[in-house]
Prior knowledge:
Chains A, B, C, D: GO terms for molecular function: inositol 2-dehydrogenase (NAD+) activity. By secondary structure, chain A is an alpha/beta fold.
Amino acid sequence: MKRVALFGAGRIGRIHATNLAALPGVQLALISDPMVDAARQLAAPLGAQVAPSLDAVFADASIDAVVIASPTTTHSDLIGRAAAARKAIFCEKPVDLSVERAQACARAVAGAGVACMIGFQRRFDPTFNEARQRLDRGDIGEPEMLVITSRDPGAPPVDYIRQSGGIFRDMLIHDFDVFRWILTGDGNDEAAWLSATGSCLTDPAIGEAGDIDSTAVTIRTRSGRLCQINTSRRAAYGYDQRFEVLGSKGLLACGNHRPSEVTQATAAGTRVDNPEHFFLQRYREAYRLEVVHFFEQLQNGRPFRTTVQDGVAAQVLADAAAESLRTGQPVTLQ
Amino acid sequence: MKRVALFGAGRIGRIHATNLAALPGVQLALISDPMVDAARQLAAPLGAQVAPSLDAVFADASIDAVVIASPTTTHSDLIGRAAAARKAIFCEKPVDLSVERAQACARAVAGAGVACMIGFQRRFDPTFNEARQRLDRGDIGEPEMLVITSRDPGAPPVDYIRQSGGIFRDMLIHDFDVFRWILTGDGNDEAAWLSATGSCLTDPAIGEAGDIDSTAVTIRTRSGRLCQINTSRRAAYGYDQRFEVLGSKGLLACGNHRPSEVTQATAAGTRVDNPEHFFLQRYREAYRLEVVHFFEQLQNGRPFRTTVQDGVAAQVLADAAAESLRTGQPVTLQ
Amino acid sequence: MKRVALFGAGRIGRIHATNLAALPGVQLALISDPMVDAARQLAAPLGAQVAPSLDAVFADASIDAVVIASPTTTHSDLIGRAAAARKAIFCEKPVDLSVERAQACARAVAGAGVACMIGFQRRFDPTFNEARQRLDRGDIGEPEMLVITSRDPGAPPVDYIRQSGGIFRDMLIHDFDVFRWILTGDGNDEAAWLSATGSCLTDPAIGEAGDIDSTAVTIRTRSGRLCQINTSRRAAYGYDQRFEVLGSKGLLACGNHRPSEVTQATAAGTRVDNPEHFFLQRYREAYRLEVVHFFEQLQNGRPFRTTVQDGVAAQVLADAAAESLRTGQPVTLQ
Amino acid sequence: MKRVALFGAGRIGRIHATNLAALPGVQLALISDPMVDAARQLAAPLGAQVAPSLDAVFADASIDAVVIASPTTTHSDLIGRAAAARKAIFCEKPVDLSVERAQACARAVAGAGVACMIGFQRRFDPTFNEARQRLDRGDIGEPEMLVITSRDPGAPPVDYIRQSGGIFRDMLIHDFDVFRWILTGDGNDEAAWLSATGSCLTDPAIGEAGDIDSTAVTIRTRSGRLCQINTSRRAAYGYDQRFEVLGSKGLLACGNHRPSEVTQATAAGTRVDNPEHFFLQRYREAYRLEVVHFFEQLQNGRPFRTTVQDGVAAQVLADAAAESLRTGQPVTLQ
């Protein structure tokens, strides 16, 4: 039985708490959040305790692993302390908005020799993961081109955007990880050239906050594979999460998930459901499967699908995109 | 906190056990099965006890409700005893292969004034239920015609078929309930005329066992609404579960659920996943939602979506279909 | 160069005229219609002449073939006279509303030894014909079950319905031919049992005219294959023309044709075009291909895909359906 | 009656010849091709004459219009001579591989005051054109982002590639025109910034010929609208021609056209037809509609949907893409 402490009782923390509580062989022992009431409300029905303090968590020798679902700004500190305390670590993306601090986390984890997984849940989505497995099986031959469409139903509050690190670090971080997973995931290739541009088209307030809401990114790998990512903070029809990979022998296209399979035909047209509107619903199964994976690999001492190095690498691409947008020039990556 | 006893630790019993164990406000207290080892293996990880005997279950005043997932032949007896013991009842379909015994169950339940729900899980499937809600909203006007396609991936063992009561009672019982739910669900209409035919096309052994494997049933209601049901014990491409309802203002078509939304295009063609192959997977969410519904309605003293009367009514249609097949003539229903 | 005379300058006559005029090796020489102005307007731009009289057409030795697109009531007489005059015959469905007269036509054609093709255009639809070819190739093994959905966008005027011969002869005649083509097309099987029911649901005036507008027909073949046909005079979403055939190794499903492949996603939902609304548009290519086939087979002295015997056989099924509806009993066919 | 001369009896010339011959009010009078036999074979069945010489065509006062379907290298000369001879001009894309010569053609046409249309057939494709009309109607609000997927089933012979002007001028010229039509078609916007990259992934021989086979292009307009174009010379599953435009109120996605609407489900999966494999088949209707448009607008003295200026503008974008690929830097357009 693995005893686990959870940091963060917010939106994403609650998701992890429910999934952890339902895992056989895992006990959600402690929940820590500065907002003690939130922690208490979450802990009670799940039979967990509220952690008296951060120190108490790291001092508790009976805690085997920590799940970090607190604000991004706290990640690197908690990873460092968990590594020092020899706890296995599951940390929500991103590792940190700063590549330097993210790299420091990677060093701390490596130094302490603790297991650390980053929560890029898309790699655990049944549809995306099925595509990756077919790619590995060679069903479409050698991958050549990846087109990622990634659109939110609507923009977050401008206050959030102001401290988000910008659209590349906040939103495209997932897409950069998908690019690496699909086009360079075989370990034989790497991003070599990146060009990013974008605009503020959905809400001037986003521009006034110094960010953009619509982006177009292109990445070329050392072997010449190509990736195009198009993103928007607003898709009136819902949460649009698709990618297509062209291979030497065919195409794999990942479509959206819909709430139901009802088709309705009237004089107004033939319509199907829009995509799942909310990311916690769209990736509900992925959030469950990633913690299952975390404890399975922990149990068997096997590597995670998404390591802290993956977290660093995605951050490097986000920085490159931000620089390309700023300078109007492509960035060469080594 | 409702304390629940489960009868049956088989395939379907295990599904219910897992769902019950995860329900807030519900405690899976006892599991009863003649195969004590199966009951023990199921109970242990879920923190439930193995019931020493049937009598012990019904004698236990702390048990509020029973979930009956044991073989069909045991349903009517268990319903009767549970009613006598004043336990709320959730019973898997069918109530009983005999309409008379099913009606006796209905009387027993009514007499004892206990709540009784029959597990027609299709009414809780997200896709089918969404269609019903749109129908209620009037999205396609007045329902006129229903076409049900219901095909299993493959036939069960002939030994099972021999004691199944025949394809109409064993397999179409669900489709008869869907017909009632969709075409007469508003309570303003009823089946008036039924014609059934069929053949043995997939396996001669099924014919030798006195059954058929392919059927075509037509039902006309008092108001003239029409329903056609086509079923087969074998669909090489998986578990095919669809229906389409034509209304005065349009069509609602319920499609199959697929394991993933990956589309793969190669020189061999453009293909999507086949339907979920296994009924426990296809209706996984429906099985969860029906027990949620059971305890919610129980809590609020509201009626169930699927009553014991619904169970009887579906059985009556199954008998009519069997008679129509035997005589080669339509059956008039009052 | 084959010289052709066309009977009928109405809606369907105009379609055939345009297709004939564009056929290499075919000269549309004469057009005959009691409404001489209609004939003249159609003939002029196509470089055809208006036939002075029916007699003149049959007396003209330079005419090799006739295309009969005049009202149903004139078909049998024109077939008889064309046979007597040794002209090759293309006649629109149906041969005649009376099976007896249709059989007389078959005898006349056989006696004269002239080629005669009936215009069941659905057998030439690219989608339906592709399905038939895959069936012949054995792509889904042995055919077992056929489900035909056949719905018009709206009912014709009641005056038309009054003299239409009823929905089975007027509308389902096509579906009966599709049944024969798909389930018994290999010549190894035949319809053995038919049960039909129906209602008047879309417009009481249709009922007052002695007809119905919604039907459900079931046919079982000698070998036990099953067919269900559901039809309605009204589909608010357009002209719904689909069939699905289940085989021992899989399913072939023929979907509707749409005007465009645009998918539009907005807050209101994700929608595609409704089916082609008008039968002349839906079957535009089929109408072209059937006359191409007529002259190709004529040229090579090969049999037609749809003979006058097929026309008679479809009429027999239509009569059986009408009788089954009248008596409320199934009909056994020899 | 407009009398027309056709230059070119090759693959595309034959398409135009057939469409011209079927147009009411149009007479295909002359066909000119250095390969006189090809011209003769094409002319004979269509009742056209073979032009004795180019001079004879331009000297023939009875010729109202010319259709230029000869090799690209001949376009500018023929446009110039047709303009001088005061013939209306329909010219296949591209105007010329050199922007300078294309601009000279535009000047010649303007100077002579003759009507000149360039054959960008995609603007006449029923699906693409339907999307444009919905955009004009405001069905998805303001256009923000365009993603074009444009892939050939296979690469042309390397000899062809060597003199093609490169993939941007030869293949993407259509996509650059689609970009202008969809994102700047309202005349209120223009391309401001373009970045192109690419690789040789499908066949080293293409690289040795100095070209690439896989490209990723991004264009930003003055108002900040974004366009991404991904192309490949090889798609194992057929001719992939799609685009998606995101607007402030929704999405318009143009899918591929398929030969039939048959869905086949077997143990191997559920598959639909691959896209039309050959461009002449995919755009068959578009080729017909563009010449219909040419003569309609000519008749009514209204402007063409695709002018010689559109041809020049697409060429400018192709040059910019070639330069961006060469320098590895984005290109700013005025």
